[in-house]
Amino acid sequence: MSANADPRTEDPRIAEALDEAIASAGIREQRALVSRILATGIGLGQDETSRLDLKITAAAVEEMRAAFRLFAPYRGTPKVTIFGSARTRAQDPLWLSAEAAARGLGRLGWMVVTGAGPGIMEAAATGAGPERSLGVSIRLPFEETTLSGAADSDRRVEMKYFFTRKLMLVKESSGFICLPGGFGTMDETFELLTLQQTGKMEPMPIVLLDRVGGTYWQALARFVTEELAGAGLVSVTDLDRVVVTDSPDVAIEAVAGFWRNYDSLRWSGDRLVMRVRAEPTDAEIADLNTRFSGLCASGAIERTEPLPEEVAGGDRLDLPRIVFTPRRQAVGDLYRLIGALNDLESAPAATVVLPRSEDAAE
Fold first, then answer.
1. Distance CA 120, CA 341 (A)
2. Pairwise CA distance, residues 338 & 260, whole Å
């Protein structure tokens, strides 16, 4: 059997047996996808996969199932993930900033997701309160794992693997706040930047929050600008997607305000469709084309009706949209465009606007 072969098509008896098992389990929704998951497991067995690899696969799937169940009741509620050091002590200025940012977003209707550990994670969970906190913890041999805030078993899931934990900390959220931390925090921050630079994640607000007068994130920004962009390894505008601040209030506004007018995007071939909450005027479209002429690889920014593929999928048909063909590697400019759309006079008033739900995002 080839590496990508599907046991269901290689042997019709397997497909029939899987269908019978799924029906016997009472599964009525998404049966084709469930069948694919089961068939992949059978394929691993047919490949004579090693015991270690099978253990990794089984544990990863089990962990993802547990995390999906944790988040499922809150699917329609916007979430912000807050990253930071587990070693930050209570009442440290960074602790107080994380607590304040989480409390403010909680009051605006957001839930706060953390790594369910001590330090900044505990500060954020404390600020949001137990009813608005969810935790995705990790078992570590050399670090303190005392939990607080999101420690209740019905609001926390524990992971063995970093990759499954990182998936859930990113997948479920519509905004991110990173406070100074060690290798783990830097890993999580650069993963966010990588996902957004490569287009593997839709645009989301990313805030780098420091203590008052702190230089942690400013030093990182200098490194990116002088070393990475200076060597041509990233674009000089790549950090335009990030808000660097030492104010929890600015962090709150950056996360919540990102969704004031902007709603979502999707690709149609090489064209990018951006959905907004209020339709731009002719004058605003003309101004956007003047300001963002360098963003377009060809043509111009235009208003459009839902494209055929959007209609076929029922994808946000109630919203106005614009369409254009962007230059590749223009992620920073794309974020500036989202900011400009949020600042249009036609945009909704600067009140609390929550991002769309996960169901709409899919």
1. 33
2. 10
